[in-house]
Amino acid sequence: MFGKVEDLFLDLFENTKIVDAYYSYCRKYGKVKEFLYDNPKNFFKNIFKYRKFLTNDHWWDYHYFFQMLQLKLTKDAMSYSKYGISLNNDKYVCQMMECVVILERLIEDEYEEKAFEKLDKKWGKLEMSYKPYKDDLTEMVLTRDNIHTEQDEKQAREQTNNMHKKSYANRIDDIEKLFGIMNKNILYWWD
Predict the structure, then answer these.
(1) Where are the domains of the chain?
(2) Where does the chain have alpha helices with state H?
């Protein structure tokens, strides 16, 4: 109803100062509405959406950054697949979901666990114990059931160091792949 009245009003006063004043009023009203209603509404909606991350985030920890990025990319991918109007939506959704899968691996952070399963099978489960050292200090002692000689000890230590390096390299590869995909494509991820 209001749209018809507005059209009639604009037709009657076309190319007049009244129409100019009306458009000026609408622009100002839109800015006021955006400032007083839309922005606060979006702000509180985002606080609710990211509340878990806001309460658990620490400045020294990257873990929640990955979780927040994963949530953002997941929601964006779902929106693109449902409402997107770009010709390349499916391609963008696949790129985002590839990032989400990589982020899931980074969040689970099981790089060492998977690498050390082989060592546990070969040398036995790693046992940790403590013994008194000097004064009030203690020494941590790491043992495995299948290590019997110094040669075994040396070989197990070398394999452990290699596994640490390999798991670290796998983590770095995932991070580089994630940010490589984003670096190459993020400017196209809008609709």
Answers:
(1) 1-49, 60-188
(2) 2-12, 17-33, 39-49, 51-56, 63-83, 89-108, 111-123, 150-185
